[in-house]
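Lab channel / #folding
Pinned by the channel admin:
"Please post every new chain as: sequence first, then the structure tokens as a reply. Keep commentary short and put observations after the output so the thread stays searchable."

First post following the new format, from NK:
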Amino acid sequence: MGSLFGRLLRVQTWGESHGPAIGCVVDGCPAGIPLSEADVQPQLDRRRPGRSRLASARAETDRVQILSGVHQGRTLGTPISLWIPNVDAKSKDYDDFKDVYRPSHADFTYDLKHGIRDWRGGGRASARETAARVAAAGVAEKVLLRASKCRIVAYVLSVGTIRAARFPVRISRTVVDRNDVRCPDPRAARLMEEAIDGARREGDSLGGVVELRVTNVPPGLGEPVFDKLEADLAKAMLSLPATKGFEIGSGFAGTRMKGSEHNDPFVMRKGRIRTEKNDSGGVQGGISNGEEIILRVAFKPTATVRKPQRTVDRTGRERILSVKGRHDACVVPRAVVLVEAMAALVLADHWLLNRATGRI
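Reply from TO:
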């Protein structure tokens, strides 16, 4: 329950933060697609902890292994099982609050729902689970290469009150990774790094916004009424840990515009019907129109902080909690890879749906 995503490209993740391993099963991938660990590993390397001074010091290698569904370098059309070992879990860091609820974390709600929880690192509620999603997205991106030269790039737009300049030109993942905060605006990136460092020294945390751009999107993706493309993208993004907001195109800023300002006029450009601008964010009527998909995802400040906080234990007794261990002072730079991954899973699933119904 709750661990399965997609309709034709179905992904089920498994494992806990401090268990022996995490992973996923990808079902519905067409046969004959070239696939190896080398196709999946680069994004896992970008996501893994310990890769920069701003991230958690947990030293996971995140070396992925394909256990099934691939033979002689090509997919078989059967379920693809991906396995990632946990090699640096330190469960003793959580001993002091295994019966104490961390404020704004999933501890209380998991106990409330199931009557039991894995308190080691947050169990399934840990962002560690997202490594399995990133591995699955490695398969999805290979599927998308059959659809088009779809190009998915996310970057940090803001951290706390610091906001980057807008980026009207195409940005590559290489450019995004030039600094630890993954913001292509060098001036804003320096300020963001200083702010995250400051919050970490204070035992606190910061949130921010990740912006995603997808170019060369096949037109016609999306199903009215309940399976609109932006609805599935919203669900995918808000399923990520620490997310608190989603907007596409003009988003909430569009509410301050008049209809005549917000509408995207149609024009002919190089023999194709295009839009003159893109306040729609690449989706109209729930269906991709071939323009660039632009969306933004808001991430709250990391719930786990070192500052003393008031809380209660499982018996309701008041406690003061000061959390130790290895945690991100700001999840936003690492969340860039997660946003890209969820976009790949949604777009690949919708492309397969169009293909199955004869519309491609």
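NK: The chain has a mean pLDDT of 92.
TO: also worth noting, The radius of gyration is 21 Å.
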